[in-house]
Design a protein that fits this description.
mainly beta; Methylamine Dehydrogenase, Chain H; five-stranded antiparallel beta sheet; disordered N terminus
């Protein structure tokens, strides 16, 4: 019986017992059918509950109670009349955690800093049980001080970890002096004893220090320290931030203290070298990381700054000085940046950067804290010298460097990665919690008083001078929500596993660390909470996971006599299918904390790592340790004394595929846009509609047989022609023409060079568009210029019918087979009435040798174009195989649409298999990339790196029309978001303030931000006096539509790298010489809705086609194809050149160097 029992778990036994009992009950002759006793029902009910609970999968992490662990620390913060969130905005910024083996028993111990309570030290006694030894160790600190960051460092390199505490908060500078607790070893009871010696080391700095990080800034082998500073003495708001920057500049400037050896004292002494090192730019520092971002052997400093103060990236110049190059590295950052971490998230050997902000996930929270879109403030920031910042988390994905040893290029992809919105967030920890081989993301969040709450400020702002604090403070709501955990999916995206992995307890969490508390190869989590007990989360991946799928490797480093912990060492781990993880040894991660100093790597299903290469911190020479065939599930102990000297390899030189030859060929054009605030007219637009141009075309304009370049922009005086000469050089000339234009300020959106009347020279057609002028304004009439054969042109106002639609594109083909090119002109919008559908036009060429004339034949030839939608691009191409050129169009709020050319008429083709995929389609390219003899369609879309997410079940929708019967056009944009109960519903996308601007009377039905945050779209429509029109977007990925024949297509999304941003330029050909089509792409859109931020993560891309039909990205270091601005097109030019026009950027001539 004993052996039999061992073969079954408890769940199986009780299940069997329940089943047998039930069978006996039902089969008993004493119980008639339909007359089961209450006891029988009760018994079966209990069994069913037990079995149901047992079948639930236990979470990966277990939250251990204080009774279980012995850790009873609570970071209690008391509100008073004089010290509260309204007088001290940083009161709830929390405190950190430190990890080290302070007593040398081989188990990591825990240190907690307290703001208004004593610091506590807990020794790890094994089995997740800890002993509080604070009263005996001498680390409790002063209750008069406000402790913040915890920095663990062996400052005297004696093998005993010391504790450096950052102190802030108090007005009295003597109460802000940082403290250094030197580990004096164990007393007779085995308890580590500490002595406070900050003054002796020169580290008792009285700045408002939030945190400190030790590193070797000049490669002399000594550990220097960077002090992160944040002072919030003034009340901070957008209106006074500029003034405060001046008044608080010194108080908010970080410091660099350099270590010098004192023979007299026998230990290091620190000296402030901030000024001479160039550390002079102020901020409100809440996060700091050390990393060699350009891999030149010197450590750089990344600083995440709160409020409008910009993030800083101090690039080490190698001579003891630093230069802030954040704006060179990042296109935008988080607005209220808090905690941050740097690690390789994609296993490509490049460090990525993740920084937290405070954008909520649920609709009601987002509506209650959201500021109205204010494009004017955004532009004012730009002119005041501020770099773009957005209120959301940012994930800066490292794309490698363009030049050898140069700065890397980043793509900000937090929205695509699903990690952008985590509410009021503090600590970001990047680590492999399930040992899958990819690092996951843990985030702490929450705050007892949410000072961003709009309803509170609407009330308090009116009565703040008379309302007592005791009444005001309880009116400020709390943000008490679970912390987040995101599992790395291995494809630049993350899955929210917060609940599944056991993080469902609402908290106010700040500092946090990852640490293997029981040395079993799984990373546990320790969290310092505000006004709640600290939390220990035990990781059960080793016990509950698949041992063959969750392998791990740990590394302990023993460094030099002056850097015993080898801070700054770089570990390169090679394993699996080409995976390369790079990790820099610094324990100062997340927020105000020091993580486990033992380095941890997940290996997934790989039992052996191909190699581990440890590059030790450089002093006199480079040294490294190479471990081949490192077996998993063990700890490697590496010592610098066993390392060997080596010469670093130079970055591999590649023969690039493309090179920029613009300047050497005489092209020096930069587009200067005219800024227009689209959101003033339509506050709820998803993106600006005025950001178009320059309109560029290629063709022979002077009859010399060489292709020239015409460039048109918003002012006619800026139109130019680059005339090509026989030596390949270009000469810039103005666009000269005869005749009087009705207006010289217009917005060209496309230009076409074609021979309209068959006289052998190219004439010019210019489409006008934009939104700057009223509907039906004369400036929306397209323009036609006849070529005079002498380099000049004549404006012919009567060549075109008087059609006044803001247009987008013009293309030509001979539709009626008379030998003359006819035109399709795409209509994009009616100004002020987007997304109302507009018509596109077919212009039939009725020219002769004496006169050029086109007439509108849309209703006769292509009546489906009447009110077709909002067109952005079009092509004539025979995609149906009947020998006639069909019309393919792309636009907003519509599918890729084909009008089949049959009997000289264009008729809507249905079905196509793709008619349900409505998108914000921006561009088209047609080529047979599948090689089946049928032309496929490559279509550019918004991409997936956006707050707007769309699917068939959860579309992005627009409800529009004169919704309030006031004679004005309004639009309500909607998205699906969780409500306060986690149920996904369709909500208005914008804040209450935006709708108040449009429909103030309607908003009276939702008098508070909270009430509006609860209102789904149906609640809003119910109070509208007019029935809205509706459009939907169901698909936002840039996509290939493979031609299956018979007018049917199959959609396949392009790789994730293409989805980083909105796509505008596409060319397909075999660039790499492998016999398969490759795809060259440009994109970006800067004029986005400000709550989303600019779509600027794209840097230009070459996708290499493979034999199996898949595509993979080639790095820019190999291609040389680098376009980080707004590339709006790719125009083939001559045999091996391409022209790349850029909005608000340079026009570039790129040479393809072939293969």
């Amino acid at each position: 019986m004993e052996n039999w029992v061992k073969r079954f778990d408890l769940h199986s036994l009780i299940s069997i017992i329940c089943k047998n009992a039930a069978d006996n009950l039902f089969n008993s002759p004493m119980i008639a059918v339909g007359r089961l006793s209450h006891f029988a029902f009760g018994f079966l009910f209990v069994c069913s509950l037990f079995i149901s609970n047992c079948t639930r999968k236990a979470p990966l992490f277990e939250r251990l109670s204080a009774e279980r662990t012995g850790i009873t620390f609570i970071n209690t913060v008391q509100e008073t009349e004089t010290n509260n969130v309204l007088t001290n905005e940083y009161i709830y910024n929390g405190a950190g955690v430190g990890v080290a083996d302070f007593n040398g028993n081989g188990l990591p111990d825990l240190f907690f800093a307290g703001n208004e309570v004593e610091n506590r030290l807990y020794l790890n006694r094994g089995d997740f049980r800890f002993e509080d030894v604070s009263d005996f160790s001498g680390i409790s600190g002063s209750l008069e001080k406000w402790y913040s960051g915890v920095t663990i460092v062996d400052i005297n390199n004696n093998g005993l970890p010391d504790i450096y505490l950052s102190v802030t908060g108090k007005q009295n500078p003597e109460l802000r002096r940082n403290e250094l607790y030197i580990n004096k070893g164990l007393n007779e009871d085995g308890i580590p004893v500490f002595e406070e010696m900050a003054a002796e080391f020169g580290l008792d700095d009285p700045s408002y220090t939030t945190n400190a990080v030790f590193f070797d800034s000049n490669n002399n082998g000594l550990l220097d320290v960077y002090l992160l500073v944040a002072y919030s003495g003034s009340e901070i708001s957008y209106t006074n931030i500029l003034a405060q920057r001046e008044s608080d500049r010194l108080a908010n400037t970080d410091k660099l203290l350099r270590a010098e050896w004192s023979r007299e004292l026998g230990h290091l002494v620190y000296r402030d070298v901030s000024q001479e090192a160039g550390i002079t730019k102020d901020g409100h520092g809440l996060g700091v990381q050390i990393v060699d971002i350009n891999q030149n052997g010197y450590k750089d400093i990344y600083v995440a700054n709160d409020y409008i103060s910009e993030d800083l990236f101090w690039i080490n110049q190698g001579d003891g000085t630093f230069i802030n190059m954040a704006n060179d590295l990042f296109k935008h950052t988080s607005y209220s940046a808090m905690g941050t971490d740097i690690a390789d998230l994609t296993n490509n050997g490049l460090p990525d950067i993740f920084t937290l902000d405070m954008l909520p996930e649920t609709n009601i929270r987002r509506k209650m804290m959201a500021n109205p879109n204010n494009y004017r403030n955004y532009i004012n920031d730009a002119f005041a010298g501020f770099h773009p910042q957005y209120t959301r988390n940012t994930l800066q994905l490292n794309r490698g460097s363009v030049e050898k040893s140069g700065l890397p290029v980043f793509s900000e992809v937090a929205l695509l990665a699903n990690v952008a919105v985590t509410d009021w967030s503090w600590a970001a920890l990047l680590a492999d919690f399930d040992n899958s081989g990819f690092r996951d993301i843990y985030i702490t969040n929450g705050i007892p008083r949410d000072v961003t709450d709009k309803d509170f400020w609407d009330e308090y702002g009116r009565v703040r001078n008379i309302m007592p604090m005791r009444i005001a403070l309880p009116k400020i709501p709390e943000v008490k929500i679970p912390n987040y955990l995101f599992k790395n999916s291995g494809n630049i995206t993350f899955e929210d596993v917060t609940t599944e992995w056991g993080f469902d307890t609402p908290t106010y969490s700040t500092g946090a660390v990852y640490v293997d508390l029981n040395n079993n190869g799984a990373l546990d989590l320790v969290v310092n909470n505000t006004n709640q007990p600290a939390t220990i989360y035990r990781n059960h991946i080793i016990e509950k996971g698949d041992t063959e799928e969750n392998n791990w490797l740990k590394i302990e480093l023993s460094g030099s006599d002056t850097n015993i912990d080898a801070l700054g060492a770089i570990i390169d781990l090679y394993f699996g299918d080409g995976y390369h993880q790079r990790h820099e040894n610094t324990p100062y991660r997340g927020y105000l904390s020091s993580v486990d100093p033992t380095l941890h790597f997940g290996l997934g299903s790989y039992a052996v790592a191909d190699s581990v290469i440890i590059s030790w911190p450089k002093t006199d020479e480079h040294k490294r340790t190479v471990i081949a065939g490192a077996e998993s599930n063990r700890t490697i102990i590496a010592d610098i004394r066993n390392a060997l000297p080596y010469t670093p390899n130079r970055q591999e030189n590649f023969e690039l595929l493309f090179q920029d030859v613009s300047e050497e060929r005489g092209i020096n054009y930069r587009h200067v846009p005219r800024y227009y605030n689209d959101f003033h007219e339509q506050p709820t637009l998803p993106f600006k509609l005025s950001e178009v141009g320059p309109a560029v075309a290629v063709g022979d304009l002077n009859g010399n047989g060489l292709e020239d370049i015409i460039i048109t922009a918003h002012s006619v005086k800026n139109w130019i022609i680059y005339v090509q000469e026989y030596d390949g050089m270009f000469v810039e000339q103005p666009f000269l023409f005869e005749g009087d234009l009705p207006h010289v300020e217009i917005t060209p959106t496309d230009v076409l060079l074609f021979d309209a009347n068959g006289n052998g020279v190219n004439d010019v057609y210019i489409v006008t568009g934009g939104v700057e002028y009223p509907k039906d304004d004369e400036r929306y009439r397209d323009l036609f210029f006849e070529n005079n054969r002498d380099g000049s042109f004549t404006y012919l106002p009567d060549a075109l019918p008087d059609i006044r639609i803001s247009g987008s594109v013009v293309i030509h083909t001979d539709l009626n087979n008379n030998g003359l090119p006819d035109l399709f002109v795409g209509g994009r919008l009616h100004p002020g009435r987007y997304p109302e559908s507009v018509s596109s036009t077919i212009l039939i060429n009725n020219s002769d040798e004496n006169r050029i004339r086109f007439f509108d034949a849309t209703s006769e030839i292509a009546s489906d174009l009447i009110g077709i939608g909002n067109i952005n691009d079009a092509h004539f191409y025979d995609v149906t195989g009947n020998g006639n050129k069909d019309l393919i169009v792309a636009g907003d709020w519509m599918p890729i649409t084909i009008l089949q050319n049959t009997s000289n008429k264009l008729q809507l083709l249905r079905p196509t298999g793709i008619e349900k995929l409505t998108g914000w389609w921006s561009t088209l390219h047609i080529a047979d990339i599948s090689g089946n003899g049928l032309p496929d369609i490559i279509a550019g879309n918004l991409g997936l790196n956006s707050l707007y997410k769309a699917s068939e079940n959860e579309p992005v929708s627009a409800y529009f029309g004169d919704l309030t019967n006031d004679g004005f056009f309004e639009m309500i944009l909607t998205v699906f978001k969780p409500d306060s109960d986690g149920n996904r519903k369709e909500f208005p996308a914008h804040s209450r303030e935006d709708y108040v601007r449009m429909m103030p009377g309607i908003m009276a039905n939702f008098p508070t931000h909270q009430e509006f945050g609860r209102a789904a779209i149906n609640d809003l429509i119910d109070v509208l006096p007019a029935e809205p029109s509706q459009k939907r977007v169901t698909h936002l990925s840039s996509t290939v539509f493979f031609n299956m024949g018979d007018g049917m297509f199959k959609a396949e999304e392009l790789p994730v790298e293409v989805q980083f941003s909105k796509i505008f330029g596409i060319q397909a050909q075999d660039f790499t010489g492998n016999g398969h089509y490759d795809i060259l792409i440009t994109g970006n859109l800067s004029g986005a809705d400000l709550k989303v931020g600019s779509y600027n993560a794209f840097n230009g891309l070459l996708l290499q086609g493979k034999k199996d039909g898949t595509y993979s990205e080639l790095p820019i270091s190999k291609t040389g194809f680098f376009f980080p601005e707004n590339g709006i097109d790719i125009l083939p030019f001559r045999d091996s050149y391409f022209i790349i026009p850029q909005f608000d950027g340079d026009l570039r001539l790129i040479e393809f160097l072939r293969y």
